[in-house]
Amino acid sequence: MRRRFWLVSAVLVASAAAAAGVWFITAPERFGSGEVDAVSDTGGDVEHGKLVFAAGDCASCHASPGQSDRLRLGGGLALASPYGSFRAPNISTDRIDGIGNWTAKDLANALLRGVSPDGSHYYPVFPYASFTHMRSEDVRDLMAYLRTLPAVKGRPPDHELNPLFGIRRFVGFWKVLYFEPGPIAPDAAHDEKWNRGRYLSEALAHCAECHSSRDMFGGIRSSTRYAGGQDPVGTGFYPNITAARLGDWSEAQLADMLKTGITPNHGRVGSSMADVVTNLAMLPESDRQAIAAFVKSLPTRPTPNP
Ligand code: HEC
Ligand code: HEC
Question: What's residue 18's pLDDT?
Answer without folding.
Answer: 82
